[in-house]
Design goal:
It is found in: Cytoplasm; Nucleus. There is one protein chain. The chain is an alpha+beta fold. It has one domain: Alpha-D-Glucose-1,6-Bisphosphate, Chain A, domain 4. The protein has helices spanning 16-25, 47-54, 156-192; strands at residues 34-43, 67-72, 81-86, 94-103, 108-116, 124-134, 137-149. Strands 1-7-6-5-4-3-2 form a seven-stranded antiparallel beta sheet, with helices on both faces.
Length: 193
């Protein structure tokens, strides 16, 4: 049921619609010693369900497999800071992240990493969620883009490969969780009839 259609090359392999969404919402000011990429995932679950998971800046562990714990001080709003504990397996244990933008109408979330014990410096990402018909049913197109400094001792390709691998895991998990919830919602609806 899960689609495995990640596309990561800027401008190459994107549909016209995906290219338009990227041009409109995924603008990053990429400097010389940085890398950037956009990834696309099609999910067989309705937009409202997928967005309900993505928008929870305070609960990334609902679908991000490398997050073990998240604490946000105060109300969830632009400028909120979250302290994330990372599960073993990644070269980090904590990450401090700021919510830069959250738009429930357009389904856009943007965040930056502002601290932590990892090598992702000047990391910024944008996630957008769009309705898309998949196999004749309501589905979702998720686009996640990022920009990050290339650490000393690494190449742009190595850095992009690492970040893309983490994002692909997160998007696969988002698809798994969303599609499972969509099936449960559909099953519960049938059982109530």
């Amino acid at each position: 049921m899960v689609t495995n259609d990640y596309i990561t090359m800027n401008g190459n392999g994107f549909s016209k619609m995906e290219e338009e969404f990227i041009k409109r919402h995924h603008k990053h000011d990429v400097k010389e010693n940085q890398c950037s990429s956009s990834l696309v995932k099609h999910i067989k679950a309705p937009v409202h369900l997928v967005w309900s998971l993505v928008r929870r800046f305070d609960q990334p562990q609902k679908y991000k497999p490398f997050v073990s714990r998240c604490v946000v001080q105060g109300d969830l709003q632009i400028g909120s800071i979250r302290e994330v504990n990372v599960k073993s397996g990644l070269p980090a244990t904590t990450s401090t992240e700021r919510l830069e933008y959250l738009d429930d109408n357009e389904h856009i979330l943007s965040m930056t990493i502002v601290g932590g014990d990892h090598r992702l410096k000047n990391y910024s990402s944008i996630v957008t969620v769009h309705p898309k018909v998949i196999d004749g049913r309501p589905g979702t197109l998720v686009i996640e883009s990022f920009v990050v400094d290339v650490p000393d001792g690494n190449t742009k390709d190595e850095t992009c490969y690492f970040v893309e691998a983490v994002i692909k895991c997160n998007l696969k998990s988002l698809a798994d969780v969303s599609e499972r919830l969509a099936v449960q919602d559909h099953t519960e609806l049938i059982e109530r009839m």
